[in-house]
Design goal:
Elements (H helix, E strand, L loop, with lengths): L2 H11 L5 H16 L22 E11 L3 E5 L7 E5 L3 E6 L2 E2 L23 E6 L3 H4 L1 E8 L9 E9 L7 E12 L8 E6 L5 E5 L22 E5 L24 E4 L4 E6 L6 E5 L5 E7 L10 E2 L2 E2 L16 E4 L6 E7 L10 E6 L3 E7 L5 E8 L6 E9 L5 E9 L2 E11 L1
Parallel strand pairs: 1-23
Antiparallel strand pairs: 1-26, 2-3, 3-4, 4-5, 6-7, 7-8, 8-9, 10-11, 11-12, 12-13, 14-15, 15-16, 16-19, 17-18, 20-21, 21-22, 22-23, 24-25, 25-26
Length: about 425
């Protein structure tokens, strides 16, 4: 996506003993969420809501835990209870009172991971716990699995599991029930997030990233395919059913699971607990990253639009006007939008009522409306930023309004996964 940064990191670690480990983690996430391309970056001179560093909000990082591999997500099934950390290499870890338990909660697909930056098999993209998890013990995972038809890239699978009845700190691996399988060119590279909405339905985002495949055809504007879409299904009983108010349920030649479309890769999204609106970060290609308010039936423009810019002309017209992002920024400010959450806590008053989101480059921003009802973002200045290069892969907020960021640190000796709390400076 941003070739200059790829070259920089490659050259930086090429001569170190730890290069293979470092570049492995770098490529694993870059290929998964950001997918760097070799194209030249084009800056948009009309960047929306320019960020002024002088107006930044100061915070600091408080270390929570380090994890051997690559944390990309955090869930809290029970308010005030254990936190569950998604490791993209195929595991789910339990964070209990800021300490990581030694044994993973889930490790079904770690043995499928090939250890190659070019392989998607075994990647665990996202986890969603059922709203009634404490009663039914159900949780759902989105992972990449082998495919007999698409042997190189595999397939994308959403499955239901339950935790062990006798030990809630361990999952029952034999309980797996397949919910949805998606096959197609590069689809396993396009896993993103699964999450339950306030309506009790499961939302599933699937990207439309060609992953450096020159033969790939973008499908985000084609309602016959699930690529580049946000899905919404009812999983209370399997096989899943389609909610009655899904916008394309009665539309000919359209997949009824689709809730919204026109995304490149809606890597992470969340629901504002007050308004219940869905906010998400759609990862850009060469020019812009964007934040969207995702609504029923909305068309967000990819691949014709990338943020506020034109990416390519697409002959397939849906007839639906594009919904513009509420905020965009170029690769001067970041590289790959991660997404975030609304903050309603009291410990960081400057962030209250704002959407706090991250960029893979190690940046944090607070997005809110100004006096003219326009969305503007301010950077968060991290006063104790790690001396090693820190790449953010996910962010979260718990029931106590504590903000977390997770990703990995890189230095000449190797890399390690880390989790930080974002606290008052």
């Amino acid at each position: 996506m941003y070739s200059n940064n790829l070259s920089f990191l490659f050259n930086k670690f090429m001569d170190t003993k730890g290069f293979k480990i470092v570049f492995y983690s770098f490529c694993t996430f870059a290929a998964t969420a950001c997918n760097f391309t070799s194209n030249t970056v084009t800056k948009n001179p009309k960047e929306k809501s320019a960020i002024a560093i002088s107006d930044s909000i100061t915070v600091k990082f408080e270390p929570v835990s380090d994890i051997a591999e690559l944390p990309v997500e955090m869930n809290e099934p029970s308010p005030g209870g254990n936190l569950f950390v998604t490791d993209i290499t195929g595991k789910i870890w339990i964070l209990h009172k800021d300490s990581m338990l030694a044994k993973p909660f889930f490790d079904r697909y770690g043995n499928l991971y090939k250890g190659s930056p070019g392989s998607s098999i075994g990647r665990l993209y996202s986890v969603a716990f059922h709203p009634q998890y404490l009663l039914n013990h159900k949780f759902y995972v989105c992972y990449a699995a082998p495919s007999s038809r698409y042997k190189k890239s595999g397939k994308l699978v959403i499955s239901q599991f339950t935790s062990d009845e006798k030990n809630p700190e361990i999952s029952d691996l034999k309980s797996e029930k397949k919910v949805l399988e998606v096959e197609g060119s590069n689809v396993a590279f396009n896993g993103a997030q699964i999450r339950f909405g306030p309506d009790g339905y499961l939302y599933i985002s699937i990207g439309d990233d060609k992953a450096n495949d020159s033969s790939y055809k973008y499908r985000a504007q084609d309602l016959r395919y699930l690529n580049g879409k946000l899905l919404r299904i009812d999983v209370d009983n399997l096989p899943y059913t389609i909610p009655a108010d899904n916008p394309f349920k009665q539309v000919k030649n359209a997949r009824p699971e689709i809730w919204a479309y026109g995304f490149r890769k809606l890597w992470r999204y969340s629901f504002d607990p007050v308004s219940h609106q869905l906010f998400g970060g759609d990862v850009g290609e060469n020019m812009e990253e964007e934040i969207d308010v995702v609504t029923k039936g909305g068309n967000y423009g990819w691949p014709e639009k990338e943020g506020d810019s034109i990416f390519e002309k697409n002959d397939l017209k849906s007839g639906t006007p594009f919904t513009s992002p509420i905020y965009t920024y170029t690769h001067v400010k970041g590289i790959c939008v991660i997404g975030g959450n609304f903050y309603y806590g009291k410990d960081l008053p400057q962030l209250t009522n704002k959407y706090v989101f991250a960029d893979w480059k190690g940046c944090l921003f607070a997005l809110g409306k100004d006096q003219h009802d326009k969305w503007n973002a301010l950077p968060l200045k991290i006063v104790n930023k790690p001396s090693d290069s820190f790449f953010i892969c996910g962010s979260a907020i718990d029931a106590n309004n504590q903000i977390y960021v997770m990703g990995y640190l890189v230095n000449k000796n190797g890399d390690k996964g880390v989790i930080y709390k974002v606290v008052k400076s």
